[in-house]
Amino acid sequence: MIQFACPSCKSTCSVGDQYAGRKIKCPKCGARVVHLRDSKVELLTAGTIPSIASATTVAAPPPVAPAGSPLNDATPLATAVVPQSVGEFVQQSESKQNVLIIGGLIGLFAVILSVLGIAFDLPLLAVAPIGIALTIAAVWLWVRMKRRRDGRKPPG
To answer: Do residues 84 and 71 make contact, with C-beta atoms less than 8 angstroms apart?
Structure first.
């Protein structure tokens, strides 16, 4: 996999190794570059970064060139690189994703309720959500540890 930074818009892109030494098109700005070696590319045609208004409009599909046409030797489109943490999250099982999402939501609600408790000078509301969230986390860890000790695989 060849990864490079687009010289026109600075976005990180990647293409397969079979495109080494060939012309490549940036998916974000449309700039055309030629791969030199490793992650080095040379800008051939500068691209344009789409404005927010034009980014929300639906683009028409590109025209398909007839067989035998010189347009068939199209420049391959590079793909944007997904951050590693997002890629790892997507590769998890669905139950693991659900646990992570629910845990994040519980933590978010605990923080919001605690901030509201502090803002309205309600000590119980400031402390109780964090205590409840920590209790939920402790019970979940205890159940997980017990299942591991008993030789059963924990869910997720």
So the answer is: no
Provide the residue ranges of all domains of the chain, joining segments of one domain with +: 2-81, 85-149
**Predicted TM-score of the model (pTM):** 0.42
- The CA distance from 134 to 110, in Å, is 10
CA 134 to chain CA centroid, nearest Å: 28
Residue 156 three-state SS: coil
**Bridge partners of residue 145, in order along the sequence:** none
Comparing CA positions, the residue from 40, 42, 20, 22 lying closest to residue 31 is 42
Q: Which amino acid is at 99?
A: V
Burial 20-59 (b: 16+ CB within 10 A, else e): eeebbbbbbbbbbbebeeeeebeeeeebebeeeeeeeeee
| pLDDT per residue of the chain (156 residues) written in tens, 0 to 9 | 888 888 888 888 888 888 888 888 888 888 888 988 777 888 888 877 765 544 444 555 555 555 555 544 566 666 666 666 777 777 788 888 888 888 889 989 989 999 998 999 988 888 888 889 899 989 988 988 888 888 766 555
- Three-state DSSP class for residue 2: strand
